Amino acid sequence: MNATWSLRRRLLGQLLLVFxxxxxxxxLSVQAVAxxxxxxxxxxxxxxxxxxxxxxxxxxxxxxxxxxxxxALEMLGLSGEDRVFYRIATSAGRLVTGYEDLPSGAxxxxxxxxxxFTTRYRGDTVRVATARTxxxxxxxxxxVLISVAQTRESFGTxxxxxxxxxxxxxxxxxxxxxxxxxxxxxxxxxxxxQIGRVLAERASDDFTPIETAAPREIAPLIDAxxxxxxxxxxxxxxxxxxxxxxxxxxRTPLAALKAQAEVALxxxxxxxxxxxxxxxxxxxxxxADETSQLTTQLLTQAMVAYRAERAERQRLxxxxxxxxxxxxxxxxxxxxxxDFRLQLDESAVIMGDEIALLEAIRNVLxxxxxxxxxxxxxxxxxxxxPGTGNKAPELVVADHGPGIPRQERDLVFERFRRGGTxxxxxxxxxxxxxxxxxxxxxxxxxxxxxxxxxxxxxxLVFPAPRQQ
Length: 468
Fold this sequence. Notes:
Elements: H1 7-54, E1 57-60, E2 63-66, H2 70-77, E3 84-90, E4 95-98, E5 115-121, E6 124-136, E7 141-151, H3 153-188, H4 190-201, H5 219-271, H6 275-310, E8 314-317, H7 318-328, H8 330-335, E9 339-344, E10 349-352, H9 354-371, E11 377-383, E12 394-398, H10 431-441, E13 445-450, E14 456-461
Parallel strand pairs: 9-11
Antiparallel strand pairs: 1-2, 3-4, 3-7, 5-6, 6-7, 8-10, 11-12, 12-14, 13-14
């Protein structure tokens, strides 16, 4: 049986095979019983006819005579198209009347107790009843054999009709059994479906054991699932502890390395050290910065992935999120002489996870600061409040940097992929990947567009209020 079939179909198929076998046995049994019943009915009629004829055997002046009781023969003729044959002869073989070539079979042991057998006669299958009677003649006792035969078409048809009726009953039983079996299997599998609903409805960070009433046969499955949940919880706890410990242990030496490089670089620049050594120190500082940023971004992406399913959604002001993210990056913006120009629709509301959304917006603004020219500005626009009709809430960040070529705009959302214009700028290649991951978790979209006359416009489009 196909492995992709459901358990319900497998059970139904196997049970229907059993029921079909029982239906075939029912048909064969009824056919056999109907055949025996037809034989018994025919034998009763044939035997009564043979005995009735035996009672009419007399001794006349010319020898043995028979006054055939036509009522008995007419009773045989009531069965339809069947033909009737008879033969009355002495045990020595002398024919009194009837069909001389009709076989008589073995001599009955008792009078009034006919012997029955089936044979072929004149191309047809006939059922024969042979009775015997004893006649006292003038000089001796004479045994007379009376054989009455009848073809079997009507009785065979009767047996066939009964068997076909049984087959119809069997098919009806099979159809009813299939329906009742389907209902019974559905009821029997309800505990399994209940377990599925319990697992589907619980939060992804809910590692409590499953506690639901279930039949004894399903208890091992529940125990196995609970054991797996417990092991999964331990694995996740261990992973989170490892990530936190690794972050701490990586950041600490990187910070020390960067500080030492800064000290050595300043000392070398003041003393007019070798240009190659100074350049090596600059590269060391840059490598420490990139490694620290990469570590932070990797941890951020792990956090975003973790919160995508676990965090509860709440009503948030998109303008407030943009304002908070801009405030968090004010120092970095001032260092490059870049201003944030905010045009915010305070009524724009979305449903989401505040921490993950803030991280995504910070990554967008950080990219605009890094790739935009110094002493410039970055425009932050929020639209989509209730007064704008059915327009979806949007956050647009526009800079005047080199932008991203159209052929690369799908690639930059992949992890560790950066555009060709970003080669000289320090980065990890994870910022836009994090942004897309957050927007997918919130059923939103990210679009990259050209910013006239130069630069890049990144647009975050959230679900319309009616869809939230």
